[in-house]
Batch of 2 targets.
Target 1
Amino acid sequence: MLVDLCFPIQEHWRYSKFHREMLSSKEKGDFWEITGFTMGSHWFSHMDFPRHTGPEYPDSEAFPLEAYNGKASVIDLTRPDLKNHGFTVEDMEKATAGRKLQKILLLRSDWEKQSDWNTTDFWDNAPFMTPEALEWIVAKKPTCVAFDFPQDYTIREGRFRKVTPDDQPSHTILLRNNNILLVEYVHNFDKIGADECEFICLPLKLPHIDGGPVRAVAKV
Ligand SMILES: [Zn+2]
């Protein structure tokens, strides 16, 4: 079974510059249907390469597909009171007790069940990772981590002020300092229905890019 982990790329307040139009269509008197669209490399379901945090850090060319495709462990962090909850080392330990973790980690909160991703509430009151919990992840030596919630507290502040990589610990502790890739704004981890799966994540082949929209899928 394949589980689609991506959100649809369509009108969303957070990505107001997203634009889609027919470049060619029968309606316009053309012979072919061709759609044009404008996308940012970090819009909708996407992955981050370290270059996202500065031009001196490694980009997409530095990472083989194996770094973000392969066996994954689902870490169940679900709880009834996710609102503004900072996940701790204790939460991570509890969710992984007695398990050997794979090189790709899928951090499952099911936040979407408590808040709709189309609302500002999804971002403004999201659970997030504490720096200590991120250091815990580093010690497990994964190559890639995917989150079903906006994992840094200050992601919510991005629309009001200029937020830097240093304000976002997953982007420094995991991505910039340890080359652990991030897959952001994915969902449906509840539909995987297993502790482990095969994670398939394919960004478009834009050379030397800082990140890119992905189609991420779990094979169970
Ligand atoms: Zn990103």
Target 2
Amino acid sequence: MSIKYLPIVLDSVIPKKLPKVELFVKHEKGFTLYKPQDTELTEQNLERLRENGTEFVYIDNADWDLVETYIEKNMGDIFSNERVPQKSKNLISSHVIIDCINDIFTNSKKPAAFHKCLAILKKLSFKFEDRDDLTSHFNKLEQNYEKYLVIHSAQVTILSMFLHEKLFKASRNEVIGIGAGAMLHDIGMLQIASNITEKTDALSESEYYRVKLHPRYGYDMLCEMFITDQISLDIALSHHERHDGSGYPRGLSGLGISRHAMLVSICDIYCALTMNRPYRSASTPEEALKTLNSEKKYFTPEIFDGFLGIMTPRHLKEIPAEKKSIPREADSGSSALLQDFTKRLRSSAEDRKKLLQLHSEVTDCVNETFGKEKEAFVAFRKELRDFMQSISSGDKQN
Ligand SMILES: [Fe+2]
């Protein structure tokens, strides 16, 4: 029987605590066994994988229960470990949320699965420095519609929790309620027949009528799961309502739509647009923002402006609108930044934590610039990587 491989984030592996499972690495032609079941993984193994740019290792699907328990048990240690970069913590959190949603969607004992997920949600904390970190790896994961629905729901959860905290300075409890509601916002779609959800052509009127029932189905399912949190219920029921009254199921408008439901509905559309579907390829974040902007009459203006303010990358905000599509040449701002980076590299005293922080800032600049400016940051990043590599090889020789 062939193995079904499941990815786990490399930085979630604590060698001495990982259960005895086989670990695989992925390459162009498939998967190779990296660690047999009875061999112990070492810190050196992990370091070598990191240096090769490995982000994930893979396990046999049959070992998932063991590994899932291990991750839940050690989540606190992984998140409090300063050596684990925030990017990896975000990635681990994303995968944990995907597993939670999958568990609720496929488990016959949904209330128990939900309460377990709620406890996990409380332990997670996302910090994003780069907008693209929010969602960039999700497109590699989706498969059939059910898998898509799980991943899409996870993406909406992360984005909604992050933006609620940023935009409204919402309390921790409120953010957890929003996370729970966003995780399950489309659960009602599980009640819609697969010949409709998997259809790649335009829906007929009667099919669209069926789809429009999913917020009500979702609301009922949450009630059956004994979920009484008003924010979660509201998100399930109202995430397709529109500011101008053209939404469904109740045709609410203006202030009749809560800020939770409105922000989740904006995140819902943004995340759907930026994922590949069988009938269209994913929009880039810029294209998705443009599409949303052309439909802004559907969204509460202050909430939509706040969303745009956070989701528009810095380099598009800084330059005048008419020059937005013109690549920038190196300017005095980036030269000053490069000088500062060089100074920090020289004074880093080979401190790995400082160097990793510097690497993450330079990568932000690489991602947000164009033309000669980008080339300058790429060249600096190469110099920085070579320096980090030389320290690692020095460590190994000593
Ligand atoms: Fe929906």
